[in-house]
Amino acid sequence: MVKTRNEKIKAIARFYSYEGQTEQLIEECAKLIQAAQKIKRAAQGQGGTVEETTRQMAEEAADVMIMCEQIKFYLAALDEPIELDPIINKKLDRQLTRIEAEKKKRKEKKQHGQENP
Length: 117
Fold this sequence. Notes:
Layout: H1 5-15, H2 18-43, H3 50-76, H4 84-111
Helix pairs in contact: 1-3, 2-3
């Protein structure tokens, strides 16, 4: 019996093909985008509640994350493995650097009497 989440991800990924799961990833990403749009509409009073639509988005986000974990498994199993963690860390560090630069710009604008955009 498969027990850990990682073992479950691997078992599912092994059962299905890379091509099939990339197609499924595309579908799940589209559903997540639609769910995010529904939250915007619900906030404007145009169908559903924000709470309901946020729960739907959480479900779709979970599906996307599961698919991404399967893709991560496939990439690590290539003849020339691609590890996502170093790529993710690099991107996170880059974004934090951008945030620090933006904070500095905002602080300078505030000191010169300009409002934040």
